[in-house]
UniProtKB/TrEMBL annotation:
<dbReference type="InterPro" id="IPR018501">
    <property type="entry name" value="DDT_dom"/>
</dbReference>
<feature type="domain" description="DDT">
    <location>
        <begin position="50"/>
        <end position="111"/>
    </location>
</feature>
<dbReference type="GO" id="GO:0005634">
    <property type="term" value="C:nucleus"/>
</dbReference>
<dbReference type="InterPro" id="IPR040221">
    <property type="entry name" value="CDCA7/CDA7L"/>
</dbReference>
<dbReference type="Pfam" id="PF15612">
    <property type="entry name" value="WHIM1"/>
</dbReference>
<protein>
    <recommendedName>
        <fullName>DDT domain-containing protein</fullName>
    </recommendedName>
</protein>
<dbReference type="GO" id="GO:0006355">
    <property type="term" value="P:regulation of DNA-templated transcription"/>
</dbReference>
<dbReference type="InterPro" id="IPR028942">
    <property type="entry name" value="WHIM1_dom"/>
</dbReference>
<keyword id="KW-0539">Nucleus</keyword>
Length: 247
């Protein structure tokens, strides 16, 4: 046969690799030490049971978004949580937040405390009616709410938080809060338009200034592109003006 021509290529000597697994996967897993996390049990300076942290954060977020319209002023959310989770008695702030939420849900125009006195049982029983409709609560919770103040005191902090958050969720479907959300959404869109128009104006003014520097003598009165930029700047200003009217 023909003899091979050209340069012979020899395989290089490679170090031998030990393909035998020296440790099992389970052994490697055992050697990985994962630090134990610290459970978060303190929210807004309030010590809570770990199972109540999520519900507490949910309520605080509701207050942050809707506290003003729900008459939950600064410092009240924390006071409500403290009383709700640490007091057996029903404090006035706890009663008041439930009554105000009931008023929003029922679209009440009169003083809600005339209908639901904070020292009475009626507001708790009414809360029980909404809980029964919207939350698959245990019969025990509903029975306690139907008993008024005496029954409410029996509920543990977790149940009380669940009841309060359920009422907050129900309030989100009310006409008052839906209207408020729509208004806030429109304001947010208006602010975004203002920011976008401001950025556009800034860029257009920069381009106009650069053009003024490059044209001999800076006379750009008859420059079509420069006039177009000025027109766009004015248009952006009109957009900002219209958006501000929506705030």
């Amino acid at each position: 046969g023909d003899e091979p021509t050209g340069r012979m290529v020899h395989a290089t000597n490679r170090p031998k690799v030990n393909l035998v697994q020296t440790k099992s996967i389970s052994t490697l897993k055992d050697e990985i030490v994962v630090p134990r996390g610290t459970p978060v049990t303190c929210i807004a300076g309030i010590k809570l049971q770990s199972e109540d942290v999520g519900a507490a954060i949910q309520f605080l977020e509701f207050c942050r978004s809707f506290g003003k319209i729900c008459k939950i002023g600064k410092g009240l959310p924390e006071e409500i949580l403290t009383d709700l989770t640490q007091l057996e008695e029903v404090s006035s702030v706890v009663a008041n937040v439930h009554i105000n939420l009931l008023s929003i849900i029922e679209n009440g125009k009169d003083n809600p405390f005339d209908k639901y006195p904070s020292h009475g049982d009626e507001w708790i029983r009414k809360v029980g009616e909404y809980i029964n409709l919207t939350l698959h609560a245990e019969d025990f919770t509903l029975r306690c709410l139907n008993q008024g103040v005496s029954g409410y005191k029996i509920l543990n902090p977790s149940c009380k938080l669940e009841v309060l958050n359920c009422l907050c969720n129900e309030a989100l479907s009310s006409k008052k809060l839906r209207t408020y959300i729509d208004i806030e959404d429109k304001k947010c869109m208006a602010r975004q338009k203002i920011k976008a128009a401001t950025r556009k104006q800034k860029e257009l003014k920069r381009r106009h200034d650069d053009m003024t520097k490059t044209i001999k003598g800076g006379d750009i009165a008859n420059n079509e592109e420069a006039n177009d930029i000025l027109s766009q700047i004015k248009e952006a200003e009109e957009i900002k003006k219209a958006a501000r009217n929506g705030l």
